Amino acid sequence: MLTAHDLTGDPNHLYIVFLPKGVESCINRSNVSQGGRCNVGGTNQGGYCGYHSYAGSTIYAAFPYAIVDGPSGDTCSSDGGSLLDTSPVGSQAPNGNLDADTEVSVMSHEISESITDPNPGDSPSSWMDANQQEVGDDCAHIYGDSLNYRGTSGAEYNQTINGDHYFIQEEFSQTEFQNVNANYSCALNSQQTVLYAQWKPLAPLSPTKVVAKADVDSASITWSAPVLPADLSVTGYRVYVSLNSGAAAKQLYPGGVAVTGMSFKALHLRGGRTYYAHVIAIDSGGSSVASNYARVTISPASTSTSLKISKTKVSHTLTHTVVFSVHVMTSGSPDVPPGSVHVMSGSVTLCTIAISARSTGSCSTHHALAKGRHLIVAKFASSRSHRSSTSKSVALTIS
Q1: Are residues 359 and 264 in the same domain?
Q2: pTM > 0.70
Q3: Are residues 291 and 365 both part of a single domain?
Q4: How far apart are CA 264 and CA 248, in angstroms?
Q5: Could you tell me if 391 and 248 lie in one domain?
Q6: Chain-wide mean pLDDT for the chain?
Q7: How far apart, in whole angstroms, are the C-alpha atoms of residue 291 and residue 276?
């Protein structure tokens, strides 16, 4: 087409292709039913509204006909955006044509990315953030402060260019990020001066394949390094272990644990409890976002119980008191297992000892056992965090 119309194909020209209504766009030679990746709407939930690419030295962008609240729930309109109170922005058409107004915003997205990332994925002329997002992706469906919207509901606009009103998504701004607010770095097109430059990712990608495997009162956590450009390398990691997942998780190691390798062993974890682990990567550009959360449940800890008695031989009378002393330990840990110990002769419980802050306790009995030799044991009852255990038997003779 360029040759036929004597058009120039170089990085200084951008060719935009608008498709008519009902024509599907796919970025490979297969449609949705054949497993291809195509535009949103109809049968392709989660597709794209437009894309830009290159062929040789020719930069181009392709735009399917605007999809507004399609049957699969996808939309390319501003209705995909949310306000701070989570209410929808709603579909806005300041020029009275919702399809055209929607396409203008999508076109703004792809034009901005065609300037900052003309050769997607090809360094050095490719700008993407640490998550492989381009400037339009970073601010997709973000339309700025609603207090600055003008116009009436359904026809609101957020910027005016050459006297014409538009409702256009914002784009990532390096200036906003570095000099104003790193937590909100989107800006209107009319507020930006786009500079073509080679940018490096500001932070690494997240570690992948985070796995946590349970051990006795501990968990072994491993992960894989993120893929980085050739001129960047991870300098370390921080490992977080918590009792639940998400931003409000209660951390066992506040601030995380600094690690240089790709494994970490979390110690002194309570048996029967579930923990969540995630990892962030660190390089000279900063920290990555959190990795996936690995879930691990620690098995109940093994215990051991010992028994001592104050007398091994007593007369058959109620006037003699026998004191039983027990000691319960968690195997391989100084942890004191809470619970109860039953001192028993056969199926008869002589007395019960509560174990809490101390691992030892005692009880006494006046139980009228029959004459003869009795084997006494102490049984620690199992709990969610600890397994049961029984002491060696101690002989008590009643004469």
Answers
A1: no
A2: no
A3: no
A4: 22
A5: no
A6: 82
A7: 11
Domain with residue 233: its CATH number is 2.60.40.10
Tallying the residues shown for the chain, one arrives at: 399
**Is residue 139 predicted with pLDDT exceeding 80?**
yes
Model pLDDT, residue 277: 93
Instruction: Give the pLDDT confidence of 102-112 residue by residue, as tens digits.
Output: 999 999 999 99
In terms of domains, do 219 and 266 share one?
A: yes
Ordered alpha helix ranges (H), the chain = 98-116, 135-138, 174-175
Please give the angle made by the CA atoms of 79, 84 and 89, to the nearest 5 degrees: 15
Q: 175 and 319 share a domain?
A: no
**Co-location of 228 and 162 in the same domain:** no
Among candidate residues 144, 159, 191, the one where a domain is terminated:
191
pLDDT in tens, 311-363: 898 887 655 678 899 988 887 666 667 889 999 999 989 889 888 766 788 88
| Residue 276 confidence (pLDDT) above 70 | yes
Q: Quick one: tokens of 22?
A: 């009902």
Q: Which residue type is seen at 53?
A: S
Counting other chains too, the contacts that 273-276 makes at CB distance below 8 Å and 24 or more residues apart are: 273/243, 273/297, 273/298, 273/384, 273/385, 274/243, 274/298, 275/212, 275/219, 275/241, 275/242, 275/243, 276/241, 276/242, 276/243, 276/244, 276/245, 276/249
